Amino acid sequence: MTRPAILxxxxxxxxxxxxxxxxxxxxxxxxxxxxxxxxxxxSVAWGPLVVGDxxxxxxxxxxxxxxxxxxxxxxxxxxxxxxxxHEPADYxxxxxxxxxxxxxxxxxxxxxxxxxxxxCATYGVPEALPVRETSSxxxxxxxxxxKLMGEQIIGDYASAYGMKFAILRYFNACGADPDGELGExxxxxxxLIPRVLMAASGIxxxxxxxxxxxxxxxxxxxRDYIHVSDLARAHLKALMHxxxxxxxxxxxxxxxxxxxxxxxxxxxxxxxxxxxxxxFRTRRPGDPAELYADPGxxxxxxxxxxxxxxxxxxVRTAAPFFGLKTKPTRLPLAKTAAPVALRWLxxxxxxxxxxxxxx
Length: 359
Ligand SMILES: O=c1ccn([C@@H]2O[C@H](COP(=O)(O)OP(=O)(O)O[C@H]3OC[C@@H](O)[C@H](O)[C@H]3O)[C@@H](O)[C@H]2O)c(=O)[nH]1
Prior knowledge:
By secondary structure, the protein is α/β, with parallel strands linked by helices. Helices cover 37% and strands 16% of the residues. The strands form four sheets. An eight-stranded mixed β-sheet has the order 11-6-5-4-1-2-3-14, sandwiched between helices. Helix 1 links the parallel strand 1 and strand 2. Helix 1 crosses helix 7. The C terminus is likely disordered. The protein binds uridine-5'-diphosphate-xylopyranose. The site of uridine-5'-diphosphate-xylopyranose has 19 residues, from helix 6 and strand 8. Its EC number is 5.1.3.2. It catalyses: UDP-alpha-D-glucose = UDP-alpha-D-galactose. Belongs to the NAD(P)-dependent epimerase/dehydratase family. This is UDP-glucose 4-epimerase.
């Protein structure tokens, strides 16, 4: 029996690749559509790779005509808050124009089910904690605005053209595949947990902690860290929800628990038995002091509960990718994870721009 194909834009990226692995495990064929500008070709291992840019409407059409996907999971985007402030044109072009092109291609091919990567960045500085889906969305960065616009455009397409959507608002994605087949490597790497691990392993000299004077329990920023394999599983649940005739929805994907930067540094030190050199800096512009989700809607609507998102498990799964051993664990970590990660670090220059090639 042929497996139903799912078009996964951005499937060579961090969350996209972990989702492809789970899609394949559940009997789907993930067809990755990615321009490899930030994704990694080595992360595409569970289905075909179409190298193309989401703004290239012809390439999208060709991919859909070739593989006949039954749904689209749309990850492809630029996703650095700081960069979006300095390069808004790139962000509006890729994240907004690109999303419209993906939706138009889906519509032209009678694909009704759309799963969209959104972000807690759409809420801006939250009016209350935990952040509920009904909280007002006032993004404070161009990145956050592009994601909110994406949500609104999808909503309008759904109303007018009979499409159905699952908008998933991620909190802080982190960790790595527990089997050691996939990891987190962004280039440049700006995210907290990978950088703390890089400081622990000596890849960088120290972790810079941005702000120690916030109104939080220990003065550092608090975030809701959710394991990437949990996020991937939520996408699978969202897909099955839509396939089963479920209604369109927009839900937070978080744990409901806030963790401070200091607690992250302590966890890395504890789990890897390494000291983590840290220096304290002034606040990073645009950082809300505290962000954590109310995870209730995802639980009620999708039956989704995180399973790997305690901080020690997050650190244990991510650490091998930075050449770090961890204290004994129940998780079956693959022995090959560290060399793969180190190879990625050396080759972090990234991919090519062979628009529209299908392999
Ligand atoms: O080197 C660092 C990196 C980060 N941090 C701090 O650690 C916290 C987490 O920062 P990260 O950059 O990992 O993540 P952020 O919370 O800024 O945004 C993240 O979550 C929302 C998503 O939509 C964004 O795409 C993602 O980057 C922030 O308070 C940040 O200032 C440091 O103190 N030092």
